[in-house]
Write a structure and sequence with these properties.
The complex is a heterodimer of chains A (309) and B (525).
Chain A (H helix, E strand, L loop, with lengths): L9 H10 L5 E3 L17 E3 L5 E5 L4 E5 L4 H9 L3 E2 L9 H7 L6 H4 L2 H4 E7 L5 E5 L11 H5 L8 E8 L1 E2 L3 E7 L7 H4 L5 E4 L4 E7 L1 H14 L3 E3 L8 E4 L16 E4 L4 E4 L10 H14 L15
Parallel strand pairs in A: 1-2
Antiparallel strand pairs in A: 3-4, 4-8, 5-9, 6-7, 6-8, 10-12, 10-13, 11-12, 11-15, 14-16, 15-16
Chain B lengths: L3 H9 L12 H26 L1 H9 L5 E2 L2 H6 L15 E2 L4 H13 L4 E4 L16 E4 L6 E5 L4 E4 L5 H8 L4 E2 L12 H7 L6 H4 L6 E7 L5 E5 L10 H5 L8 E8 L1 E2 L3 E9 L2 H13 L6 E6 H11 L9 E9 L1 H17 L4 E4 L3 H12 L1 H4 L6 E4 L2 E2 L5 H14 L3 E7 L4 E2 L1 E5 L6 H18 L18 H4 L2 H14 L17 H8 L8
Helix pairs in contact in B: 3-5, 10-12, 10-15, 11-13, 15-16
Classes of the chains: A alpha+beta (309), B alpha+beta (525).
Chain lengths: 309, 525
């Protein structure tokens, strides 16, 4: 093994020592999704992940960031160089965003969270710092541990540091609203909208590109329907739903109360909770085997199971 | 298991013992194949046919789709890589998921290994059968099952050829974004196994970004659906872990791939430069300027001339390097990006900036790029194609080092690569009959890997690890890192019987050794 692979960052090493190799342990971030995956087992030692941006290389479009850093703080630093990531800004930490795996509202324009993590470092069940993936924007070296960690709720390893892919912020962002347009036809009128939202009456469209291109897209929409410019997206109801994009049209499923659907994505927000989505038994068994391999003693974030809502 | 050098030697007929009057590589390989075939087939035929595994496989499939003859086994003992040393057991051609499941169960019952295989175009030896496993060829599972435009997906069987899907989708205005150079023959199942890339993955992402769900037959024989068509499928992303696992976690039997709308407008630019350094600097400055082109491909002068001689793509022969840059999207948007790319090129002393005037010229420019490896055959009979990735800002420096490495070992190197994402493809071109050349090729290859890693790069951008780069894995990962990769492997395949001896170095994957020691007795070896 090459000596340069040895992790020397004292911040990571100290965190690994804190995790240690015995007793139930988990990371508490900003607790924006604390109830996901079932209740945490009482008596679990709660740690805070290390913070700070370690290395931002705008020309490479990558950033190395410790997982306790808030997504807002990261995005502020990236915005100074005209960049951002696919991580959602909803008050949480980088590590929280990764282990929860919820995509940004603007996922069509910014990409999925699972595509954002190029390399991850986590502390394992036995207190070691483990690296998966690699620092470059393209990499197929070995098994894809970063993707395994996205959405794992910290049950396979405690995320400490990540190298994320950054994206340029387009020159122009514009939100439009229309009461006349068929939301499902928007993508046949405009190319690659960053967001299309629909509440049964109004459709909101986020366009991002060079301003000349956004103007042209707006004109194309205006030719088929009345559209007005608005400041941004509407406020979203409380409960997040996940379905196929084609299933959004069945609006009865949301029940009474407000709902907003992300057209072309399959996410929706409604005042009512989505009925529990069952993980297929074969997949649940396989997931349990993965958990057994990565944390046979069940000490990492005990009580939580990825996929339980 | 498979030593790189001895593999090269045996594949190319050895260097020190080569008869200078011997035939070229093609006939020699055929002769070797015939010799091997004779060795296993004639005295052993009856034994193979009576092997209980073969009997059960034939009962589960049909007798004609389970082959044991020496010619078939010999053919499938290698892939498109330089590696030799594979030995195939019975070769199965299943036509549906139930048959794949039956094969897995028979393999499990008899503790036999399995190697899945698509078109065999892999370049890292990932499909080479080690220890006479059952080879499961999925090419007969080649149906496009369903195209669902509302959900922007297509369900395909693993044997569907990459370009066939894009051709099929053409009329509905969509395509399958990953476009490896082998796309005319490689299968989507193989793309999934290798997380394949291609020139247009710069903007659109590699295969993993285009796979939403996978039906997989696990080594246990269970059938599971990984991922899903929901916006955010519940549970661990086992789909993401499966893609790129090089056939070591199971066999995929049905794939839901994302279909991508064809862009309304495309501009393809050809920029020529005095030096490769100018081209590489242009690439990293384009990325730094916040432009994400659909593709950014660089070719050096040696490969450009080879391509011109081969297909007459319209590349300038006198330039030190050419950069093929493509932008797609809205017409109003791409004129701005194309103009900026041209400006950056000129600021880096571009000799010429040309925009393809029509679809015919664009097609010619791309044909040149995509046939580059075929063109090389005119220069020397053998080539060894590398695949590493470096940070884009390091491209120029690393390329200079690669030329120096080739010079040092007295080898000819050509560079044609996915510059936009830093994915290098140095091509060492040689004649395997030359004395001592294989040692030099091997040594130069190792140095290329090392300079790439030293520059902050990785071992492979799209070809995978297979058997080619196992030996380098511990230069990128610690023992703990590799042990964790092995944990994932063990969760799917506790006996390590699916494509054993690949990806993770043998020392870090004890079960693989065990699996490979259980070579079936007698005739298969």
């Amino acid at each position: 093994m090459s000596a340069k692979l040895l992790i020397t960052d004292p911040v990571l090493l100290n965190f690994a020592t804190e995790v240690g190799d015995s007793g139930p342990v988990a990371i508490a971030g900003n607790r924006t999704r604390w109830d996901l995956g079932g209740p945490a087992t009482n008596g679990t030692r709660l740690l805070t992940a290390p913070t700070g941006i370690v290395n931002y290389v705008p020309d490479e479009m990558t950033v190395t960031v410790r997982c306790g850093t808030s997504v807002e703080e990261l995005h502020q630093a990236l915005a100074e160089k005209g960049q951002r990531t696919g991580l959602p800004e909803r008050g949480g930490t980088v590590g929280g965003a990764l282990v929860v795996g919820e995509n940004s509202l603007h996922v069509l324009g910014r990409g999925r969270v699972r595509e954002a993590a190029l390399q991850i470092r986590y502390v394992s069940d036995d207190g070691k710092v483990v690296t998966g993936g690699g620092p470059t924007v393209k990499n197929v070296t070995g098994f894809d541990l970063p993707r395994l960690m996205v959405g794992s709720l910290g049950t396979l390893g405690l995320l400490t540091e990540a190298i994320l892919r950054t994206n340029p912020i387009p020159a122009c962002t514009r939100w439009l609203r229309s009461e006349e347009i068929n939301p499902f036809a928007v993508t046949s009128t405009v190319l690659r909208p960053s967001t299309v939202l629909w509440d049964g009456t109004s459709t909101w469209i986020e366009l991002e590109d060079h301003s000349a291109a956004v103007d042209a897209e707006q004109a194309r929409l205006a030719a088929v329907a009345d559209v007005v410019e608005v400041d941004g997206p509407p406020s979203l109801p409380e409960h997040r739903w996940s379905m196929t994009p084609g299933a959004l049209g069945n609006t009865n499923q949301f029940g009474a109360g407000a709902w907003i659907a992300s057209v072309g994505v399959g996410t929706a927000w409604a005042s009512q909770k989505q009925p529990a989505v069952r993980v297929e038994p074969g997949v649940a068994t396989l997931s349990a085997r993965v958990k057994e391999q990565f944390d046979s003693r069940g000490r990492l974030n005990p009580g939580r199971t990825a996929g339980v809502r | 298991m498979v030593d790189f050098l001895s593999s090269l030697r045996s594949r190319l007929g050895g260097d020190s013992t080569t008869d200078p009057t011997a035939e070229r590589r093609g006939p020699r390989l055929l002769r070797n194949a015939a010799k091997k075939a004779k060795g296993v087939a004639s005295p052993a035929k009856d034994h193979n046919d009576s092997d209980p595994v073969v009997v059960e496989l034939r009962a589960a499939l049909t007798p004609d789709r389970v082959r044991c003859d020496g010619a078939e086994r010999s053919l499938l003992s290698r892939d498109a890589s330089v590696f030799d040393g594979g030995v195939s057991g019975p070769v199965c051609f299943p036509i549906n998921t139930a048959e794949v499941q039956a094969i897995m169960r028979i393999a499990l019952k008899h503790e036999r290994n399995i190697v899945p295989r698509g078109a065999g175009t892999g370049l890292s030896g990932g499909a080479i059968p080690l220890g006479a496993p059952i080879v499961v060829v999925v090419t007969k599972m080649n149906e496009i099952v369903e195209v669902d435009v509302d959900n922007r997906i297509a369900w395909v069987e693993p044997g569907v050829v990459n370009l066939d899907l894009t051709r099929y989708l053409h009329r509905s205005g969509f395509h399958f974004a990953p476009d490896p150079s082998s796309q005319q023959v490689c299968t989507i199942g193989g793309n999934v196994a290798n997380n394949s890339g291609g020139p247009h993955c710069l903007a659109y992402g590699v295969t993993n970004a285009h796979v939403q769900a996978l039906e997989v037959v696990l080594p246990s024989g269970e059938i599971v659906m990984l991922g899903g068509l929901d916006a955010e499928p519940a549970g661990l992303d086992l789909r993401g872990a499966f893609v790129g696992s090089e056939g070591t976690l199971g066999i995929t039997t049905k794939i839901a791939v994302t279909i991508t709308p064809n862009p309304p407008a495309v501009k393809t630019l050809l920029l020529s430069f005095e030096t490769v350094r100018d081209a590489a600097n242009t690439v990293s400055q384009i990325i730094a300027a916040g432009i994400v082109p659909a593709a950014l491909e660089v070719m050096d002068q040696r490969i450009t001339i080879a391509v011109e001689n081969y297909v007459n793509a319209g590349y300038p022969r006198d330039a030190g390097a050419v950069l093929l840059a493509e932008v797609d999207g809205l017409a109003e948007s791409i004129v701005i990006d194309a103009k900026r790319i041209a400006e950056i090129g000129r600021a880096n002393s571009a000799i010429e900036v040309r925009t393809a005037a029509d679809e015919a010229e664009r097609a010619a420019l791309w044909k040149g790029r995509k046939t580059a490896f075929g063109a090389v055959a005119q220069i020397a009979p053998d080539y060894y194609l590398h695949d590493t990735v470096v940070p884009r800002s390091q491209l120029a420096d690393v390329l200079e080092k690669i030329y120096a490495i080739a010079d040092k070992h007295d080898l000819l190197v050509m560079n044609v690569f996915h510059a936009g994402d830093g994915n290098l493809h140095p091509l060492l071109v040689f004649d395997g009959r030359e004395d001592g050349i294989l040692d030099r090729v091997h040594a130069a290859g190792a140095e290329i890997v090392r300079v790439s890693l030293d520059a902050g790069g990785v071992l492979s951008g799209e070809h995978g690890i297979g058997v080619e780069k196992q030996a380098y894995m511990d230069e990128m990962f610690t023992a703990d890192d590799l042990a964790h990769q092995n944990r994932l492997r063990q969760a799917f395949d506790p006996g390590c019987r699916t494509n054993p001896g690949k990806v993770i170095p043998i020392g870090h994957s004890c079960a693989d050794i065990q699996a490979l020691r259980q070579v079936p007795k007698g005739v298969w070896a």
